[in-house]
Amino acid sequence: MRIGIDVGGTFTDLVAVAEDGSIAVRKVVTTPDDPSIGMFRALDALAPSSPVPPAIDLLVHGTTIATNALLERRGARVVLITTRGFEDLLWLRRQDRAALYDLARDHPPPLVARSDVVGVAERMGPAGVLEPLGDAEVARVVTVVHALAPEAVAVALLFAFRHPEHERRLAAALRAALPDIPVAASHEVLPLFREFERTSTTTVEAYLRPKVSAYLGRLERAARAREVSTLRVMTSSGGTLPPATAAARAASLALSGPAGGVVGARLVGVAVGVSDLLTLDMGGTSADASLVSGGAPLADGGAAVAGVPLALPAVLIETVSAGGGSIAHLDEGGALKVGPESAGADPGPACYGRGGERPTVTDACLALRWLDPQHPLADTVRLDRAAAERALCSLSNELAATDPAAIATGIVAVAGAVMARALKRVSVARGLDPRQMALLPFGGAGGLFGCALADALGMRSIVIPPHPGVLSALGLGSAAERVDVLASCHRSLDGMKPAELGGLFAPLLEEGGRQLPGAGVVLLRYADCRFAGQGYEVTVRVTDDHPRRIRDAFLAEHRTRFGHATSDHTVELVNLRVVALREGPMPRFSGLRRVVQRPGASRPIAVRGNRVSAAVWALDELAPGLTIAGPAILAGRDATALVEPGWRGTTHPSGAVLLERL
Question: What does pTM read for this prediction?
Fold first, then answer.
């Protein structure tokens, strides 16, 4: 049995895939104080009455521990070691605005205090040593750091990505003198050029490592006690690592949870034969937009989490505060807003009956009767429509409306607009036309907004996946083992020989094979390229050692992304990337029994201000080939989807429902 567990802000989802391909789902309330408690509650719920628990070959965990530490600023106290004269780098940033047209908005402060930055008398240049690092200076730095009593240390020296000798000496001395304090060195964390991003990423690694290491240590011990054969942790890149490796790469877990959802969306796309997907994971706290292009998740190496730049390989994720638990309120100008504050897991939305009183998106969906109050969400959580309507009516005076359904219609419209903007940022803003793709909404609430979002973007196809509420956990259980090896290499492609290119990649390929040994490993090569003089790069796949083919691939990708590409300009090779990959198994969606051919009932609902009667279908049991016309409710055990008027669906043998605009 392979198991994926996704710990979200409100619910913890578990998907177990047995040897015969059958899928079991469990959903429990998240335990924010210690996410591992909820995780193992879900695991124990797999066989609550069995004297012999099922044998677990692999457990893959998607965690928000790193993300939450950055959002809540609850990481370690870090001392930063940098080249003398560059102590203010994290404050200077890149001199860009946090928001172009908002003059009052500032960037979040760095994760390290200015008084905890130590300058070192040394200097590397592009060609090597400019100012030597003496033994006395190493001893002085160690003494200063010891006196500051940090919880973690980050070392990021000038040009360490190319000449790491000084950084190695300092890191070794600090590790010897402070054996219980983690030391993150930039040439180990991110050996790429750009001092600000490299320093910021190294600081994030040091900031997160103690908390992540302690959490994964507890997790591994608990998994071992339950006789789990293998435990792995999802990274931001969409691959998995063993706990010990992940603990030493804490910054790579910043988008651990959302990445699992994109992996799951890709698997569904393969199952239904759709290679270009816009994905939206709408959970309890937030909504995550992403994109699968050509059957592969789109990557982004320059993301920011909680406003902190993080330049590690990551699946492209655009997160907005439009989850089911996002609280609706009026701003100072009287405009209706949704989020960023969330009701979370405790107390949760008002309709959960756990003490929440403020109106949320879930309360609005229940008031519109999209959700069934008799249907349990997780554990013993049932929905209370009267409580939801009371919470919605708390806005009635400010909105001059007394009908809960009218207030709910406004809330879902605002939440939908926020999510539509996120989908446009990952598609239109990157030169990709969403009208040429299918929308794949998932998560506990994603399917309720699929038709409205597709209409907002002019899309005519929607894929409602099997088990949409736990697709992230399904993706985790089937995710590949992955290691990324990076190196900077500033060379012109013009005149480069194939043998030179092969020689540049050779040490990275060797390192990738060393870090991920064994059978079934595929080594993929990528190159970051740009026109000479540009300040940004485009990543392209390298299929052979011929530089001309890299140039042609770069021109084609640049033209797609930015609308132009001049073939007579010099193209530079900037960074090299090798991905070592061992693919996970493909879930056998089609092996599930699905026999329902008629709706179970119908009920009145409100859609965009109109009252309609919707047929209610059992989403998890729909027979293949069935045609469903909107308005309809697709009620599953882990999520509910809404088919709006003007849309028609067909059930795929995989269990997915393929919707088309009429």
Answer: 0.89
